[in-house]
Amino acid sequence: MAMRQTPLTCSGHTRPVVDLAFSGITAYGYFLISACKDGKPMLRQGDTGDWIGTFLGHKGAVWGATLNTDATKAATAAADFTAKVWDAVSGDEVLTLAHKHIVKTVSFTQDSSCLLTGGNDKLLRVYDLSSPESAPQEIAGHTSAIKKALWCNSDRQILSASEDKSVRLWDRSSMEEVKTLTFDTSTIAFYNALSLELIKSVEAPAPINSASLHPEKDFFVAGGEDFKLYKFDYSTKEELESYKGHFGPVHCVRFSPDGELYASGSEDGTLRLWQTAVGKTYGLWKCVLPEDLGADNTEQIYTAPPEVKA
Amino acid sequence: MNMMRPVHVMRLPRGPDPHSRGFDPQSPRFIALCRTSIVSSLTSDMDPEELQREQVMRAELRERFLRCLLSMANKRVRFNMYENVKVEATFGASDIDVLNFQVTDLQTPIGIQKEALIRSQDVISLSFDL
C-alpha cells in the first residue's frame, strides 16, 4: 500500500532560509548547512536533520552557505559585506574576506584550496585560501548582481548566474568568458555543463525558485512560490508527486549526496527533509509493516501528526 | 481526504541548544578531527616525552587564562579594540565559548552604557590592575 510522505521539519532558524548545501559523504555521514536571514548559519547531520552547531559571527543576513567535500570547512556569504570561512568541526571562524557589497554566493574547489565568491558588486572573486591576505583574482562581466557561482569541469571552469538574466561559463586560467546563456522566461531547464547546450526544459505548475537533479538522474525536485515541493521523472518529464508542507515560498532545494532524501529551505524559516523513496527505512524514517502495528508496540513508534493546513 | 498511511518517524530532528553554539567536543568527529587551536608539533615521530611536556604547557596556559578571567571580575578593565576603539568597563564575566564579555558601566565616547556585551572577537587586547 502506498505511503504518505512524512517530511521532517528542522526548526531553529528565526527568519527565511535562503540557501542550503550538502557536503560529500564522509566517514561520519554527510552534513547540511543552511543560510538564513537571521545571520546564523547552521550545520546539521544530513540524514537526520539533527542540529550540530551554529556558526556565530556574521552581522547581517547570510545569503549563501557551502561545505567542502569532507565537511571540515564551511563558507558563508552575507549582507555584512563579508564572506567567512569556518572550521566546520569546531565551529570557529577561520577567515573573514572583506568585500565591497553584499556577498551572495560561495563555493570551494574540490581540494578546498580556493574559494569562489560573488555578490552585488557584480564581480566573481577567487581567493587562494593558503594565502588569504593576497588580493583575490577578480572576474568582471556580469551587468547585475551575481546570485550563484560554482566551480565546474574539475574546477577548470566557473559557472555563474546573475540578476542580469544570464548564466555564464568562465575559464579559470584565462579568466575569460567562454559562453553566455540569456533567459527571458522561467522554466526548469537542463543544460550540458561543459557546452551549455540545452538538453531539455520542463514547464512547472508554479514559478520555481530552485531545483535539484538526483545523483543518478532518475528524478529532479523543484520548489517555488506556491510553497509546494514537486518531484518529476527526469527522462519522461512527468510530474510524479507534489507535497504541501511549507508555510511560505520555497527558496532552495537540494538532493543529498546519496540521493535518498532532499532538503528544502523556505521563507517560513524551516528546513524540511523529504524521502526520495517514500516509506523506506532511512535516517529517522522507519518502514513499519501493518502487522507490526499491534496495540503492544505503538508507543515505541512516533507518528508525525498530520500537517495542519491554515 | 488522503487515506494513505503516513510514514512512521522514530523521532523528530534535534533542534539547537539554546545555551550553546554546539559543535560538541565529545562527539566522535570532533575528537578525531579537531586540531588544537595552537598548532602542536603533533607529528608521528614526536617524542612522547616532548608531547607530554607540551600538553603540560597547554594546561598551564589554559589555567592562567581562566585565572585571569576570574581575577578580572568586578575590576575596571581597559579594552583595546579594532577601528582604534579604546573603552573601559567593569568586567563581569565571559561566556563559555569566550564569544562575549559581560560588562557594566561601559565608558564610550557617546556616554556610559550601564550594561553591555562586548564581542570578544572585536577585542585586540585588554589590561587591568591586579
From TrEMBL, chain A:
Pfam families: WD40 (PF00400). Keywords: mRNA processing, mRNA splicing, Repeat, WD repeat. The keyword Repeat applies. WD repeats lie at residues 55-96, 96-137, 139-180, 243-275. GO terms for biological process: spliceosomal snRNP assembly. GO terms for cellular component: SMN complex. One of its GO terms (molecular function) is RNA binding. It comes from the Eukaryota. InterPro entries: WD40/YVTN_repeat-like_dom_sf, WD40_PAC1, WD40_repeat_dom_sf, WD40_rpt. Belongs to the WD repeat STRAP family. This is Serine-threonine kinase receptor-associated protein. It comes from Mugilogobius chulae.
TrEMBL record, chain B:
One of its GO terms (biological process) is spliceosomal snRNP assembly. Residues 1-27 form the SUZ-C domain. It comes from the Eukaryota. InterPro entries: SMN_gemin7, SUZ-C. GO terms for cellular component: SMN-Sm protein complex. PANTHER family: GEM-ASSOCIATED PROTEIN 7 (PTHR14679). This is SUZ-C domain-containing protein. It comes from Mugilogobius chulae.
